[in-house]
Amino acid sequence: MAPLRSLITATLLLLSAANAHFLLLNPQSLEGQDVDEDKEGNGPCGAITPDLTKDKGTDFYVDGDFVSLQLSHPQANWLIRGTLDSVATGNWSQLFPAVKQSGLGKFCEPTVTAPASWVGKKGVISVVADAPDGLLFQCAVVNFVSGKNTPASGPCTNATSVTGSFLTSADPAFATLVGTAASTPSSTASSTPSASATHNAAPAFAQGGLPLGIMLVTAAMVLAGTALL
Ligand SMILES: *[C@@H]1O[C@H](CO)[C@@H](O)[C@H](O)[C@H]1NC(C)=O
Ligand SMILES: *[C@@H]1O[C@H](CO)[C@@H](O)[C@H](O)[C@H]1NC(C)=O
Ligand SMILES: [Cu+2]
């Protein structure tokens, strides 16, 4: 039974990791891939507030570097922004035009740029999703360096079922999330994902999305596991 038990455990872990609203895969996010789903709606960064005096950060090439995401919703609009503010309270610059992802899974923009004047400085890159259940946030602490990074195709891919398109009109939900004012886009009722406990059930059911399938598979495996172990 042991191999079966560990297989089930591994599968459950995998499935629970896949249940975050979205993951920021590159640059390396503060929460990694173990995202606190309940806090992903808290601006500016989800569960973790960056601290540039402590967080190390990975290199980000200002002439173009890749931002890789994994979405657990059938659709979302993406805002990619950056700041040099020490605790990411504001002064966000938009680093890439707002883009819509349609389809679940991986989405990667290979050439996101940052101001040349940021070279040699540490900062925060924040990705905001305007998803069916509200605004969602993840951040990475980065060291801005000169030059361009050409990602290998492995880490920067779009899932085959995913399509993207640049927004033809601005997403009003993003309007207050960029600009020079050092104000925190605080988590409000409207920007918090509605009842995140239902994220994998009701919304997915309404949209016929993958997460419901995952929940059913998970439930079936729990039942199977209980019966077998
Ligand atoms: C906002 O960021 C810019 C660099 O992009 C910097 O020049 C400016 O001083 C910052 N403003 C504040 C209020 O921190
Ligand atoms: C993924 O799709 C977006 C939107 O169409 C596009 O800008 C981007 O270059 C694509 N990424 C890759 C790795 O092809
Ligand atoms: Cu969600």
From TrEMBL:
Keywords: Cell membrane, Glycoprotein, GPI-anchor, Lipoprotein, Membrane, Signal
Coiled-coil zones: none
CDD domains: LPMO_auxiliary-like
CC terms in the record's Gene Ontology section: plasma membrane; side of membrane
Range of residues in the leader sequence: 1-20
Domain Copper acquisition factor BIM1-like: 19-160
Highest taxon above the source species: Eukaryota
Protein name in the entry: Copper acquisition factor BIM1-like domain-containing protein
